Amino acid sequence: MANKIGWFNNHRVPKHGSKSTNRLALGSFSLILIIGLVLATVYYFPNLLSPRKRVLTSKTANSATYKVDEKQYATKIYPQAKWYKDSSGKWQDIDTSLEVEGNKISTKGLPFSVSFSKQADKPLTFALGKDSISFSPVILKSASNEESRAIVSKDKVTYYDIYKNTNLERVITPQGLKQSLVLTKPGHPESFSEKILSDMTVKKVGDGSLAYYEGSKVLATSPKPHLVDAKGKKIMLSYALSRDKLTIALPSLKGLSYPITIDPSIFHTLPDFQTGTSTNVDTSTSPVRLAEQSPGVYYSSGTLESSSIDVGAGDSARITSVAWETSGVGQTTQPANTELKFQIAANNDNATWNHIGPDGTAGTYFTQATGHKATAEIKGRYIRYKAYFSTTDTGLTPFFNSLTLTTIDIGSGSDGSATVSGTVNIVNLYEDDNVLGVTTSRGVDKGLNMGPNTYLAASSAVPNFDSLTVTDTGVLTTSSKVKLELKVSGVLTVATGGKIDVSGKGYVGGIAGVRGIGGRFGGRGEGPGGGTGSAWGGGGGGGYGGAGG
User: Is the pTM of this model over 0.85?
Assistant: First the structure.
């Protein structure tokens, strides 16, 4: 001790040192102490400072699946494509914004490219890899104004007065190029033509659309055109294809209200980008919403069904909850008088699609955006969601930004090994392997975390341990009306003093017999083998239950 005191006296701050020197020494000592505490915490208690890491396991153009722990997965699904694979096969963020360099306008972050000019009469080129097609508007002087003004805004270009009383809008989407000819008032042309130059083969198909082929493979399509007037009246149009010229002729517009919009567009057919099908839902906007039947007036209902998603948890993946975002990231509320709800279909063959709600029936829906638990077993590797949009005020619409599915692999694999060293309820043991003295090889916060409202006493939900040890102080039991069932593929060890206690736990016993007139019976037990009360006596005990009185 004397040596230690001497060392301190020899190394302390001189008595007559400056105040700043004293503060510096004290500050240095405090800093060393704090660093030491942090290092000790990291070494001895790593879980206190290390947040649970999510590991990306799979990705598609519109979904990302993360492994949360050894059994749980979270899959976030978007109604629109969010990523694309570049030439090296790496996923990149989709960016539909346009770049402007002089008179040239072009796309940048997409699996296809579109380039055109600020001058409306110059060619527009749509390219998929080495294949491309160019469209050049045929603008007659008699049908055009002297000058068309091009206005660029993010992913949209508007040419004002490309033809007399006609504007042209070009909007870039993850699926391709959406074009609109907007007739502002009478006096516009009666037909619109474009010249086509392409190394692809262009054919008109049976439904009135155009298909662009490379050999026998369809690379892109132009849906059959239509027009919509200001009151939402829709009339189907048709393409006339003659060698290198494509024409849309207008029918009689008598009785229609201006402005009138015509939509000649082109979309790619890349298989990775098929995100689903919709009815009365506008998937070209973000977030997705009900489509307008006329400007500012939405359809009263619509549906959106996704394409197939591999949730990554294997053939025995079970969906435990569904949550979604509405008008944007982190948003879960909707405008008044609107509703968005979901059903889920799951299978292992990627072919059988029966949409059901949280209780496993076709008549219920997931309705809680912040997280709606599945009370039935919805199990399968492949899933599809179906979104139901509705509004009682057609001036308002519900919104949909993204959906998150939480799944757990309950299947044929093992739930690991567990040790019971205190009194543990089997439901808790299965739901969260960390409670009440239970330890596992997975460590803190690595249990199954099923939650008390989602436990299913079914064969597929029975704990399946590699090994289970009940120590001399351990008691494995269960609560009233919950049967105790588990599987151990390896060794089950119950030490002297340890217990697996099922007395009076599985089912409620018969109630006491009632004294009275002969022939009067007491209660019966609820479980299998439940006893029946005898006349003038006590009731028999229920199966797995306490005896009657």
Answer: no
